[in-house]
């Protein structure tokens, strides 16, 4: 009966007869992303019916809503890790605006190569994240307040620097700098273009009048989104650092008493959110060819919505990166779905708020269930 | 017995917080394979004493010797490294995390190399299940959240974790105070087992009935001072209880209880006779 009688041989321990076979459903119910998965299926089914024949689910339409989801998903992934680690970052949106300016001004106004400007932006973001993390650690203030301060500081810096150096708040003409820049190439264009051309030649996707496929490839933002989600999931589920994130968010004091470097974990998470905001900014700047000081407005709140819909607890210690990705996907589906179905887009925010409340209620319910699953 | 070097020893330790003398001139020795029970009422200085032992506080006077060597701990982490594991009342457990994740929190076993270094979940789950099995707790699924365990089981996870990670001195802060009879007995059995494994155990409690069966010696604290250390063979359960709570207080409590009982029976008598007793029946 006792499985510890022979520790060497029980690697292939016989199935303990006292273990009840836990059904797949019961197991799934204890995962944080379940609600988001159900929500995704629901929203998808709704728009497949409501938006049938509108082009939302043609290849071009799919790429459209995936691109919306991808941009949000990139920052939501980082926000998810941070929220699981027990903190918020409200400065993400402003960091997007500032990072855009930091890329555009040196490149356009001072002739820096684009890669150098991008590295400058990433360095500044890392510094902002480091300051955020240290302020939260050292002062013991809630991260809500500290990063709310930085929401205004960074936005103000973006506008101030931009006006001071260029006299404008918009900087365009970045497209001219992209060709030939190895680093910028990571943030612009599409991948698998050959595959899409081949699929068009097979008649699987529609072509335009010139014989080119209507969708020429997968936007690079979607690749970033999937890669970051996969990376974050790996970190959370498989690495000691992931365990430290859960522990720091679950109970920082208990974690510290067990030898988890809570401060270092939190600083690195704040740096990751700022860096993810910069990735967002890079993609946006390369895509639109311009930077604008008001870019990224309210993105921090959208990221938090995606994370919460994805099943994370606002109090920390529980959540998933896959959930955040699904939250972002729901976001993209609804935003584009409302556009395609012709509903006045004014209603988008109403829907978003309702979604958030439903998700939180559902999550609380599920967490109670998980604690009862004896 | 006194020839052996004690595993842990407090020599004339005092701790002052400003003008408050929380501990004064305490000397305690615990050998390996021995359970020392620290008894004392609220405010006796039990918590200050264990916090001093576990590195949270530094003693104002006196010193702590570990295996004969003077030890000064800068933080709980240093004490932990030296082999002094403290299971505090809040257990350092995170309810939403799995048993395995809690068990290995901060000390995860890994496989792989460089960026592919990852937690060895198979090994971790097996060890967690095995260590819990050793103390007679049958964990069906080590990936279930700690929040689904009962209080006694949680306490055992915390103790099992401390023992597994090589504690030589185990300090338990009121491990049975919030537990039912059955759960407390699980924890007490485990304390006896830790002693058999050669650990020096310091067991803080104010429940003599929990302390007496497992303890080898008792140290009684009162108002920051020590009332002395007694071997189990030299003292009875009633004597311990008397010293701890102050015999006089218990006697007066006894008298009060007798008074309640008397008035209860009087009232019952009056009820059966069908006459409502006057309000001041008991006086």
TrEMBL record, chain A:
Q: Is-annotated flag, keyword Transcription regulation?
A: no
Kindly list the places in or outside the cell where this protein is found, as annotated in its UniProt entry: Cell inner membrane
Tagged with keyword Membrane = yes
Q: Where are the transmembrane segments?
A: 34-56, 62-83, 90-108, 114-132, 144-162, 182-201, 222-247, 267-286, 307-335, 347-366
Q: What is its main location?
A: membrane
Domain of life assignment: Bacteria
InterPro entries linked: ABC_transp_permease
GO MF entry, a single one? transmembrane transporter activity
Question: Which Pfam families does this one have?
Answer: BPD_transp_2 (PF02653)
> Which cellular component, as a GO term, is one annotated location?
plasma membrane
Keyword annotations for this protein, in alphabetical order, are:
Cell inner membrane, Cell membrane, Membrane, Sugar transport, Transmembrane, Transmembrane helix, Transport
Annotated membrane topology: Multi-pass membrane protein
Q: What does this protein do?
A: Part of the binding-protein-dependent transport system for D-xylose. Probably responsible for the translocation of the substrate across the membrane.
Protein family: Belongs to the binding-protein-dependent transport system permease family. AraH/RbsC subfamily.
* This protein's name: Xylose transport system permease protein XylH
Q: Which organism is it from?
A: Halomonas eurihalina
Automatic annotation (TrEMBL), chain B:
One of the entry's Gene Ontology molecular-function terms is: ATP hydrolysis activity
> Region Disordered: what ranges?
261-283
Origin, by domain of life?
Answer: Bacteria
InterPro entries cross-referenced by the UniProt entry: AAA+_ATPase, ABC_carbohydrate_import_ATPase, ABC_transporter-like_ATP-bd, ABC_transporter-like_CS, P-loop_NTPase
For this UniProt record, give its keywords in alphabetical order, as a comma-separated list: ATP-binding, Nucleotide-binding
Gene3D superfamilies annotated for this entry? Answer: P-loop containing nucleotide triphosphate hydrolases
User: Which spans does this entry mark as compositional bias, Basic and acidic residues?
Assistant: 261-270
Q: One Pfam family this chain carries?
A: ABC_tran
Domain ABC transporter stretches: 8-248
Which SUPFAM superfamilies does the protein's record reference?
P-loop containing nucleoside triphosphate hydrolases
Which named protein is this?
Sugar ABC transporter ATP-binding protein
Q: Give the organism, scientific name.
A: Halomonas eurihalina
